[in-house]
Write a structure and sequence with these properties.
7-stranded antiparallel sheet, mainly beta, globular, 16 strands, 9-stranded antiparallel sheet, 211 residues
Length: 211
């Protein structure tokens, strides 16, 4: 695995990979590495898009231990206290022929990016459901240390650093053999009213995120 998704006050995504784990044999369905500064998959088929009015560019990615390669950088996130759970990136991947679906990514948060990220999924291509991430079905680590979860959301407790994240949707049978399956990663509030910054001494900037 090369890079996955990263968030920072410039949110950037280095690599997104969706795969099957049926019979303990991981099979990559689709993978994005953003090499060549493109959002077409490097393996498999699928589409990536920005949602919620954000804009995108490309930046330095993550190799798993150091920075390197390319990442998808996004900016223009909602102003403080507005439009929770609407802005981020979306990935449409058919899981036809696959089951026990998992999603993995690297994500970097800048000091002023939102410190809560929600994974959402759709089974019909139209209606979105929050994935309730927890220690039993997801990974959220920073420099090998568990960063934890908050009401089903991935916590970002440090700015200007990469988080390794994954979500196991194996219990979600509707994600199996589904040509309409898609996931998205969106910024959310901390307390139901405001975005918090990844670094506690910073103020939320409302702009950037990267994977």
């Amino acid at each position: 695995m090369k890079r996955i998704i990263h968030l920072f006050q410039n949110l950037a995504f280095g690599l997104l990979m969706v795969f099957s784990n049926e019979l303990l044999a991981q099979t990559t369905i689709t993978q994005w590495t953003f090499e060549g500064d493109v959002i077409t998959p490097s393996a498999g088929t699928g589409t990536a898009s920005a949602i919620g009015g954000i804009t995108t560019s490309f930046n330095t990615g993550y190799t798993g231990t150091t920075t390197g390669g390319r990442a998808w950088h996004t900016t223009g996130y909602p102003a403080q206290g507005t439009n929770e759970g609407t802005a981020g990136t979306q990935y449409n991947v058919s899981t036809d022929g696959f089951s026990v679906i998992q999603v993995s990514w690297h994500q970097r948060h800048s000091n002023t990016s939102a410190n809560r990220v929600r994974l959402q999924y759709t089974l019909d291509g139209a209606n979105w459901t929050d994935f309730e991430a927890s220690i039993s079905n997801a990974v959220n680590s920073n420099a090998g240390v568990d960063a934890g979860f908050d009401n089903g959301r991935f916590i970002a407790d440090a700015g200007d650093s990469w988080f390794v994240r994954s979500a196991n949707l194996g219990s979600l049978t509707g994600a199996n053999n589904n040509p309409l399956f898609a996931v998205r990663m969106v910024s959310e509030f901390v307390d139901g009213a405001n975005y918090g910054a990844s670094t506690s001494t910073s103020s939320y900037g409302g702009r950037n995120l990267a994977v």
